[in-house]
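> call design_seq(struct)
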């Protein structure tokens, strides 16, 4: 019997999707019912939003370039906090955990925003120029960044209020 050759690729697949819904609080009308979610009239707008990114690592040795970082970001009101240092080869995933610390016992306020500035040009007169914001529990995948923001030291984070525990994975 002939042997079958098996090839195994190391990969990562990251999916993002969108859904509109209504959160209904019923405590005042029906005590004990709490909250529940129901479909929104805008649900049709979200059909097809989102996407999947699939990355293949060149070899198992290439996995050594996978970095897992976490950081507590504060409301600095200044130039923000850099993620760290080192090149971002392919992509970076940034998640606002919705918590204030690594033990994940104290939630951030629902209005908590993680502000992100990209590139050294995002620092203007000592203040962060926000490229985008991530709400509590949200995440963002940024693939193949340009030369002015392809290093962890060129991505700045800031909280709009209070501490935010942020999880970061890059390759």
């Amino acid at each position: 019997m002939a042997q079958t050759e098996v090839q195994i690729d190391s990969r990562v697949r990251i999916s993002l999707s969108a859904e509109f819904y209504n959160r209904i609080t019923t405590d005042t009308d029906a005590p004990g019912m709490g909250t529940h979610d129901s479909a929104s009239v805008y649900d049709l707008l979200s059909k097809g939003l989102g996407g999947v990114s699939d990355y293949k690592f060149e070899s198992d040795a290439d996995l050594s370039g996978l970095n897992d970082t976490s950081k507590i970001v504060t409301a600095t009101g200044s130039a923000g906090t850099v993620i760290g240092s080192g090149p971002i080869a392919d992509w970076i995933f940034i998640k606002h955990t919705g918590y204030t610390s690594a033990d994940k016992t104290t939630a951030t306020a629902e209005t908590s925003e993680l502000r992100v500035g990209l590139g050294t040009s995002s620092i203007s007169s000592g203040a962060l120029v926000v490229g985008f914001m991530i709400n509590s529990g949200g995440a963002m995948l940024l693939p193949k960044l340009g030369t002015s923001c392809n290093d962890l030291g060129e991505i700045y984070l800031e909280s709009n209020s209070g501490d935010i525990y942020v999880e970061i994975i890059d390759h």
